[in-house]
Amino acid sequence: MHGIMERHVSNPANPLLKRTVVRFIDAAGEDIVFTHGQGCHVFDRKGRRFLDCVLGYGPVVLGHADERFNARIADALGKGIHFPGFADAHDEYVAKLVAVSGLKSPVAPSFMKTSSEANTAAIRIASLVTGRKGVLRCGFTGWHDSQHARSPSWHAPPGHRMPLRNTEGLRGVSGDEEVFNWISLDPEDLGALLDTHGHRIACFILDAFQFAFVERDVILGAIAQCRRHGIMVVLDETKTAGRVSPLGVAGHCEDAWDMLVLGKAIGNGAPISMLLVKEAFRDPALKAQVGGTHSKELLSVHCALATMDRMQEADGHRILGNAGSAMADLFNACVRQLGLSEALAMVPVFGGSLLDIRMRDDLYADPALLRKLQASFLARGVLLLVGHPFFISLAHDGAVDAWRETFLDALGDWWKAVSNDDMAKRSAGPVAIGNSLVAS
Ligand SMILES: Cc1ncc(COP(=O)(O)O)c(C=O)c1O
């Protein structure tokens, strides 16, 4: 037989290095290997179809294999994708971003491939400007040493963040290059940290997703505190830019940041991030020599242009919010039907273009239960994340209701597993959702 299946080696000689976050393992204990995507679905080698709410961890904002997007990219391919220097399309993208977002501050923009890279660039620029090398972080901001070293599980609510991880093998994160975390989102903790270490800190890097856990003023107050210590502010809108709005959730608060990072959804899956440095820092940004060979690559820029145009034509930010809210409504209706309202809820974050499952306090104590929920949905053909926000694309609009029975089955399976666990036998309390409580 010479079918497609035959070409796939189930146990290859050189298996890829795969971090657990990007391994999806089926009920038989086998890695799911994806072959293609269409709209809100992805398919695997075994011909299985999944509802995709992971979307590459956020980038695929239009949905997979969007026809009009593909046509634009095919056209761009015919003109070459990498020149000796920058091209028309780079300027066109920046001009459109400014027009569409209403950005008022003049900025020095840089094209990057990843947001880890953009944040590393921002740290170097801040170090040049301030003459300091320490870094203060709040939220996940990438995998480079200064972003990754000694970090907690940032995507859990502050009270449930696991102890510091990633303590070995990372360089440039101690001594005068120390990295600090603001984990609790408590202004008093931040004040104490800044009183002791503020004079050594070059920049405060903030993952805008942290706005999902506290009132906006708490974070804006933290930014003001940092400024009083001469610390530059890097607002990292990687998860939110091009999704919640062109500049994310707080990018339009232009006084709040010195540098703004955009990523993920701006390219609909292509590797592109942007570092926007306020014009006043153009000289140090140039001196910092941030960027490399692929900073001027064009394919991803055409992807970003096509994505922005499609989002504008389709009123995309509103549609994403509606589709995500519909998904949360469906999930929470299933939760109510099963009598689980006191155990968990799906929260539409920033209007619904991001989603987050929040649990009853005691359930957070056992990360295995969170993993089981994710596995239970996966076993029923739904890819979503638990303990990490997950995502909606334009292609999800109107497609969610069909999954009602699946949601009920997946939740039912999970609750059976939880009920067998001592944890669930404790008395139930309400589910904490940021500052509010979900009504059951
Ligand atoms: C807020 C934030 N910043 C930075 C990053 C790192 O981005 P990249 O994976 O493009 O390096 C991520 C990735 O999830 C992120 O969520």
Question: Overview of this structure, please?
Answer:
The chain is an alpha/beta fold. The chain folds into two domains: 4-65 and 316-437, Aspartate Aminotransferase, domain 1 (Alpha-Beta Complex); 67-313, Aspartate Aminotransferase, domain 2, CATH 3.40.640.10. Helices cover 33% and strands 16% of the residues. The strands form four sheets. Strands 4-10-9-8-7-5-6 form a seven-stranded mixed β-sheet. It has a four-stranded mixed β-sheet with strand order 1-2-3-13. The longest helix has 22 residues, at 316-337. The chain is globular, with a radius of gyration of 22 Å. Bound molecules: pyridoxal-5'-phosphate (PLP). Residues 57, 114-116, 139-142, 207, 236, 238-239, 263, 273 line the site of pyridoxal-5'-phosphate (PLP).
**Taking all residues together, what is the mean pLDDT?**
93
CATH class of the largest domain: Alpha Beta
- As a whole number of angstroms, the C-alpha radius of gyration is 22 Å
As residue ranges, the low-confidence spans are: 1-6, 432-440
The arrangement of helices and strands along the chain is: HEEEHHEHEHEHEHEEEHHHEEHEEHEE
**Total strand count, please?**
16
**Name given to the CATH homologous superfamily of the largest domain:** Type I PLP-dependent aspartate aminotransferase-like (Major domain)
